[in-house]
Design brief:
It contains four helices and 15 strands. It has 264 residues and is an alpha+beta fold.
Length: 264
């Protein structure tokens, strides 16, 4: 199955210093990228909060970053701010290619994540593809998070489960913005919030709060970060307080709008 990613942007990073530069900006190890691999990275600010998630691959001595278009200006500006005098060229090539993702299918010139997920770019629009909504649904089922402009700079990598099996974070690479906070949580702490999959009969939107009855916290117990609708049911990924996973959970301030944790 192939999915057209119409709401995603693509940056090309070139130059003699591009590998070192990107490795010093992102949470994963750019040096571990092979010619056909697709790597999930988090781009964090100095407090360890994720600005954007980036699908990263390399081709013809260039690096490509694929991420949600709502964060295009933010990501470009931040990369340019940190490149300083490095030999690095950053180009938005979103208008030069069509972006596609897929699963469980062979595709020439594609880049693979966890063996059965892949991403590729094409200069021509393809036939026989599915819309992005179905890709979003598949990612939710597989627990793959996303960051949008409305949820940028709110979560550390551990809250999105990126540390589990080092899916999106390497703890053996060099420094990057926010690395001290992320590493301290990994070695000395325990995340209070993790990523879970939920279902609800009520309308759910990105950024909605998840609450529990009689919570003593002044903050919500969680937040919705990725949503899809199946007929009359909503499924979504939410960052949620581990200590409340067995409590009754509801949307925002309406205790009648219950949501249910999907146990897998």
């Amino acid at each position: 199955m192939k999915f057209f990613l119409k709401n995603y942007s693509l940056l090309r990073i070139e130059g003699r210093d591009s590998k070192d530069f990107l490795n010093g900006q992102f949470t994963n190890n750019i040096y571990s990228l092979s010619s056909d691999s697709l790597q999930l990275n988090a781009y964090c600010q100095h407090q360890g909060k994720i600005i954007s998630l980036l699908w990263t691959f390399t081709e013809d001595e260039s690096y490509y970053l694929c991420f949600h278009s709502s964060l295009l200006e933010v990501v470009i500006n931040r990369l340019n701010m940190f490149k300083m005098m490095s030999d690095v060229r950053i180009e938005d090539v979103s208008n030069q290619f069509f972006l596609y993702a897929g699963v469980d299918e062979q595709q020439a010139n594609s880049f693979h994540f966890k063996s059965n997920f892949f991403l590729f770019k094409s200069k021509q629009k393809l036939d026989n593809f599915f819309e992005e909504d179905l890709w979003n649904k598949l990612c939710i089922e597989k627990g793959i998070p996303e960051i949008y402009r409305d949820t940028s700079e709110q979560f550390i990598p551990q809250a999105l489960n990126l540390d589990i099996n080092e899916t999106g974070v390497s703890f053996t690479k060099g420094c990057y913005p926010g690395q001290e906070v992320v590493a301290r949580m990994h070695y000395l702490g325990k995340p209070k919030r993790r990523l879970f999959r939920f279902t609800s009969q009520f309308e759910v939107s990105i950024g909605d709060n998840l609450n529990v009855k009689d919570s003593k916290s002044l903050k919500s117990s969680g937040q919705v970060i990725r949503v899809t609708k199946n007929d009359t049911e909503y499924q979504f990924l939410g960052v949620f307080d581990v200590g409340h996973i067995n409590d009754k959970i509801f949307l925002n301030t309406d205790q009648t709008k219950l949501v249910y944790l999907i146990h897998e």
